[in-house]
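Priority: medium. Attachment 1 of 2:
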């Protein structure tokens, strides 16, 4: 049986079911998978969403932070030293990624690179970009989150057969079940208990941290309160930026729901008219499509790859990247009382597992 190690910064809860299913799928191909992951720190730790499983191997990642940059010194090598293959991030500042590629050159193991592949969530550094292209060209298989990453990989010279489009997703089975079983009585009770006015409700679901631009959201809510104080925001999530919304919470404009499971997410889908996401759109795109909710965002350039799943004007609406203009856009959107977003197809977790598993098999075969 082949052995494979997948290196991750940490394992968030939303990834657990993916790794459970991938572990089972790969065993059918005679491949034993482990996930080498560290404990979350900083903003990741404040989300309180770390998970794990029997397939997880804890590691201690050593990093050096200097002048706003982070150099990953290592920590995962012991976990994959004796393995037949390893999948690491394409990261110009990761020493372990270069160590893995050096071992590949010596014929000691197969190497896959899994990640965004191109710059999505920040402005790229030219040196990092060059180093990451170097890494991509020397890997046995590149695992790109979405078609945009695959297109970039091919454009920089990676043969198409060495690139797997993962179609990054989350487990929506429980959410779909909760949506199907949600009763009108539960909706009426939730609306009444919380003093909500139908058509005057929006929501935010996700980590309350810098990448989601909670400061922008807080400022936009101030303007929205002046425009229409009856509009309320359902807030699902935790994070280091939660305090920025304390004023909106205190005046009753924001209803805090904490970590939201499938049942609460289903309620949000029935009660809210849209999700507000002025910062990074990531996997929330999949949840939004499962709920039939549009996302109101901005023309901010640093969305994650999953934003590609959304169609502008259908289930994604871009407001100006200004808090006051954003608030005006939301108020106008609600006043128009748009029809619910039509059902659209979205990547499922089973499809993601199937794609990833096939890529691993190719990696070992080639």
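Attachment 2 of 2:
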């Amino acid at each position: 049986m082949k052995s494979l190690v997948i290196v991750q910064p940490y394992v968030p809860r939303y990834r657990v079911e993916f790794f459970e299913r991938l572990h089972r799928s790969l065993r059918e191909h005679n491949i034993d998978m482990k996930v080498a992951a560290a404990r979350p720190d900083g903003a990741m730790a404040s989300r309180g969403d770390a998970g794990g499983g029997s397939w997880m191997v804890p590691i201690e990642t050593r990093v050096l932070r200097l002048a706003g940059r982070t150099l990953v010194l290592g920590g995962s090598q012991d976990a994959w030293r004796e393995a037949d293959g390893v999948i690491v991030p394409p990261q110009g500042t990761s020493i372990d990624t270069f160590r893995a590629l050096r071992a590949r050159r010596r014929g000691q193991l197969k190497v896959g690179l899994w990640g965004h592949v191109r710059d999505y969530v920040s402005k790229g550094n030219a040196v990092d970009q060059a180093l990451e292209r170097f890494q991509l060209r020397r890997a046995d298989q590149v695992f790109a989150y979405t078609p945009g990453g695959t297109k970039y990989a091919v454009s920089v010279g990676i043969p198409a057969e060495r690139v797997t489009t993962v179609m990054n997703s989350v487990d929506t089975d429980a959410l779909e079940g909760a949506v199907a079983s949600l009763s009108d009585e539960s909706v009426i009770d939730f609306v009444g208990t919380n003093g909500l006015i139908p058509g005057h409700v929006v929501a935010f679901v996700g980590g309350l941290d810098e990448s989601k631009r909670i400061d922008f959201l807080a400022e936009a809510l101030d303007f929205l309160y002046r425009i229409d104080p009856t509009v309320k925001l359902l807030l699902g999530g935790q994070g280091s930026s939660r305090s920025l919304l304390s004023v909106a919470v205190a005046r009753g404009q924001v209803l805090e729901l904490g970590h939201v499971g499938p049942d609460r997410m289903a309620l949000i889908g029935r009660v809210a008219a849209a999700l507000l996401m002025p910062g990074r759109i990531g996997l929330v795109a999949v949840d939004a499509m499962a709920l039939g909710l549009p996302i109101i965002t901005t023309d901010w350039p640093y969305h994650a790859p999953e934003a590609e799943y959304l169609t502008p004007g259908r289930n994604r609406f871009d407001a100006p990247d200004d808090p006051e203009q954003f608030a005006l856009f939301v108020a106008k959107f609600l006043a128009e009382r748009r029809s619910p977003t039509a059902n659209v197809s979205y990547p499922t977790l089973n499809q993601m597992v199937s794609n990833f598993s096939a890529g691993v098999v190719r990696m070992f075969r080639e």
